[in-house]
Specification:
The protein is α/β, with parallel strands linked by helices. It has twelve helices and ten strands. The strands form two sheets. The chain has an eight-stranded parallel β-barrel with strand order 1-2-3-6-7-8-9-10, surrounded by six helices. The chain has a two-stranded antiparallel ribbon with strand order 4-5. The mean pLDDT is 95. The protein binds ribose-5-phosphate (R5P).
Amino acid sequence: MPDVDDLKEAKNYCADIPQKNQPFFLKGSGALDWGMQNRLARIFNPESGRTVMLAIDHGYFQGPTTGLERVDLTILPLVPYADTLMLTRGILRTVIPASTPKSIVLRVSGGTSILKELSNEDIVVDIEDAVRLNVCAMAVQVFIGGEFESQSIINMTNTVNAGTRYGLPTLAVTAVGKDMARDARYFRLATRICAELGAHYIKTYYVEHGFETVCASCPVPIVMAGGKKLPELDALTMASKALQEGAAGVDMGRNIFQSEAPTAMIQAVRAVVHKNEPPAKAFDLYQTLKKQAKA
Ligand code: R5P
């Protein structure tokens, strides 16, 4: 029982100081509910406003791809250097320690494999399971211009609707079909459609020309997708350019876990994202850490 006798009279009302409400400063998030903002602030570092997402969800349509044969052995050592892990509930439950302080972005679309038409996805995780897993966002693939374009957009809007009931943000992942042009015009179209229909942030590929127009015309943050494995310096340069041109972080998989030295690579990516380190300096860091790991 609180002590009711001998109460001190409260007097620190500071009536002359207006109370401040500080919405999370991330692009497009100021009008979201507190829970949504809080989860986004666990994905995007509140100091830099950026994120290093480590994407390891490839198995949901590719099986055990190179570097992800044993997630427990190859990925767990990288976790301390990521802000967020993007993965499936299967890997989350079986491999990731529940004690992890890292935010989780859960892949919730799927239902296809590399053997068939990839855009024919559905939503494969109930919103209640995403809540049970205490994730910070749900990720859905959107195939603008793809064979099942409409179905994939509806997958995303259903996820946004369900997530809104529980304060869970949605990450739209723009997937590009084999015969589609990977240019700024296409990504402006794809990202803007996802944002207009409610995605809270969007993962998309970097393009050499006009990437700044993709970021500027999208009212929510863009995170750069890594894509196929590049030489380390090229991947760091691509990330640096994307950030300078408006991206709020990266969501990289193969360019980290397929690197010759994944732990060194993720730290170099981190330096580019959170410290604005120029690519050449980040590459030096990569080489130094790689040597240290071998010694
Ligand atoms: C596919 O489209 C998924 O988003 C991935 O499985 C993954 O996130 C791709 O990451 P990365 O291209 O950087 O390997």
